[in-house]
Write a structure and sequence with these properties.
The complex is a heterodimer of chains A (about 170) and B (about 375).
Chain A (H helix, E strand, L loop, with lengths): L5 H24 L2 H17 L7 H15 L1 H13 L13 H13 L3 H12 L4 H8 L3 H18 L13
Helix pairs in contact in A: 1-2, 1-3, 2-3, 6-8, 7-8
Chain B lengths: L1 H12 L8 H10 L20 E2 L8 H11 L6 E8 L2 E8 L4 E5 L11 E2 L5 E5 L4 E6 L5 E6 L11 E2 L5 E7 L2 E6 L5 E4 L5 E7 L5 E8 L6 E7 L4 E3 L2 H9 L4 E8 L6 E6 L12 H6 L28 E5 L8 E5 L2 E5 L5 E5 L10 E6 L1
Antiparallel strand pairs in B: 1-22, 2-3, 2-23, 3-4, 5-6, 6-7, 7-8, 9-10, 10-11, 11-12, 13-14, 14-15, 15-16, 17-18, 19-20, 20-21, 21-22
Classes of the chains: A mainly alpha (about 170), B mainly beta (about 375).
């Protein structure tokens, strides 16, 4: 049950951490509005449990990743993209342009299974260890390693023309 | 090298536009049900307790209190419905006070836990799938019916809610489209829109439908409990005055946790209210008004069951509250101490422990007598 000071504490936390959370959420969802939805929902959960949280950021981040894996809207967006059929842009192969390269990576990320996308973002964007990633996703370290390997393999398959992508490894 | 992947991810992440989500998070928190706290096993889950045990409260002062204790001193012979987040997916079922456990749905990976609702008579339960399909299952025959398909692009602020008749399901189909599905024939009848989110359905004194909801004001935590009648008229519930009188002007309702069939008894979670550990008697004006019409508040809960004479028992969050319909106005709470049956005044009159076979993370979501 939050006390009267919760609103102030929460506002300070939310304003300070939202930009960082949004960046991870954007990689997870590939969409500004979905990223906002994801962070907003995770923050709301943190707010509801505020007085019981030892680490609001850890809690919020954990909720965000679990929601990403389970959330219907993410799936809905993927289905919607699939439904667009021919209207969906082809992957950009000219990776010399940074923006084209980012878009190609974004499409490749969205094609991954949610859990694979989560391990990629945690391991290679947030720079978290296998152990930290496993703890955050509530799975074993072995699962993190196997999901990472599969994710990297899938990315390589989808981005065959990207320089150095073939060299991505579990290192 | 992975350095290249890292730099590409970092560059891609910078494409997002940072915005302040504080106010939006407040709004979302209001809409979420208290059961959402069980997301992915992250938050604490109430552990329900086993077997059966009964205690009878000591007589209350006054005829009314004694009458309530007597009325509530009856076994909880109905079904307790649970929802559990297991390794194999969501599990839904029920158990009884004598220890019988029945799993109705297991491995419900596509089930959105925050949308699961049990009809007041315990005959059906409803839920929305991740794909946006609204389903109803007959708990006796096991028959599934797909009633509707939601657009998952719409930010729904009201989950499907059963009408007290247990035959109709109130739904938000689109941003401005609300109505009732009749589960007997699948027909849809459009209705007025509630004045706020998180709507619950009650029966007005004239027998028509009445929607109780929570309307957000501005970007802060301010919210009001609203009453919308079938003719479309909405008004602020007089309960607001009482809530703020009791909780202070900074206390606002965030969720309707449970409500009786007439809308005269509500258990609410409150945001920004002063911390309460219980111990207060119901204010006199509540006692006086509680038997009157819908808009006269009778009792409320605020996460803590605050209007109780026995504060020590509720020194913690109550994770679920169920208000079964019936003359005794009893309240079932599931907290860290197990399941308890309380009478109107917050006195414990019974309890149920949890069967051993119940999933460890089972959360009480309903009770049908």
């Amino acid at each position: 049950m939050p006390d009267a000071s919760t609103a102030v504490e929460f506002a300070e936390f939310a304003r300070a951490r939202t930009p960082t959370l949004l960046r991870s959420a954007y990689l997870l969802t590939g969409d500004q509005f979905l990223a906002e939805d994801l962070v907003q929902t995770a923050l709301a959960r943190a707010l509801r449990n505020w007085q019981r949280l030892d680490s609001p950021e850890a809690y919020t981040r954990t909720v965000m990743y679990h929601l990403q894996i389970r959330w219907w809207r993410i799936r809905s967006r993927r289905n919607r993209a699939d439904a667009l059929g021919g209207a969906r842009p082809e992957p950009v192969m000219d990776n010399t342009a940074p923006i084209a390269r980012q878009l190609a990576l974004q499409q490749a990320l969205l094609a991954l299974a949610p859990k694979q996308r989560a391990v990629i973002v945690l391991r290679y964007f947030e720079d978290r260890s296998v152990r930290e990633t496993a703890k955050l996703l509530h799975c074993s370290e072995g699962t993190v390693k196997s999901q990472t390997a599969k994710a990297l393999a899938n990315l390589r398959r989808q981005l065959p023309h990207t320089d150095n992508f073939a060299q991505w490894s579990l290192v | 090298m992975t350095d290249e992947l890292k730099s590409d991810l970092a560059a891609l992440a910078e494409r997002v536009t940072p915005i302040d989500l504080t106010a939006a998070a407040h709004r979302t928190a209001r809409r979420a049900r208290i059961r959402d706290a069980m997301v992915a096993g992250v938050a604490g889950i109430a552990v329900l307790a086993t077997g059966i045990m009964w205690t009878t409260a000591s007589p209350q002062a006054g005829d009314q209190g004694a009458a309530e204790d007597a009325a509530a001193d009856a076994p909880m012979s109905g079904r307790f419905f649970f929802l559990a987040d297991t390794d194999d997916g969501m599990q839904f079922g029920w158990w009884t006070a004598d220890g019988e456990v029945e799993t109705v749905l297991a491995g419900g990976g596509e089930l959105l836990y925050s949308t699961v609702r049990v009809a007041p008579d315990g005959g059906h339960f409803s839920y929305v799938t991740e794909d946006g399909e609204l389903r109803v299952q007959d708990l006796d025959s096991g028959k599934h019916t797909a009633l509707d398909s939601y657009s998952t692009d719409v930010d729904m602020c009201t989950a499907p809610a059963w009408a007290p008749d247990s035959q109709r399901l109130f739904v938000q189909r689109d941003t401005d489209e609300f109505g009732f599905f009749d589960i007997t024939d699948g027909s849809f009848t459009e209705s007025v829109a509630p004045a706020g989110c998180d709507a619950a359905v009650a029966v007005a004194p004239d027998g028509s439908d009445r929607l109780i909801s929570i309307a957000v004001e501005g970007d802060g935590p301010q919210s009001r409990l609203m009453v919308t009648d079938s003719d479309g008229t909405s008004e602020v519930s007089p309960l607001m005055d009482l809530l703020q009188q009791h909780e202070g002007r900074d206390g606002y309702p965030s969720d309707i946790v449970a409500m009786d069939s007439t809308g005269s008894q509500l258990c609410l979670t409150m945001f920004g209210a002063k911390p309460r550990k219980g111990g207060d008697e119901l204010p006199d004006e509540v006692q006086d008004l509680k038997q009157q019409s819908h808009d006269q508040p009778a009792r409320y809960c605020d996460g803590f069951v605050s209007q109780t004479d026995d504060s020590a028992r509720y020194d913690g969050l109550v994770r679920a509250v169920v208000l079964p319909t019936g003359p005794n106005h009893s309240v079932i709470t599931a907290g860290d101490q197990g399941i308890e049956l309380d009478n109107y005044r917050g006195h414990k009159v019974g309890g149920v422990d949890r069967p051993d076979s119940l999933p460890p993370k089972a959360l009480l979501i309903g009770y049908a007598p």
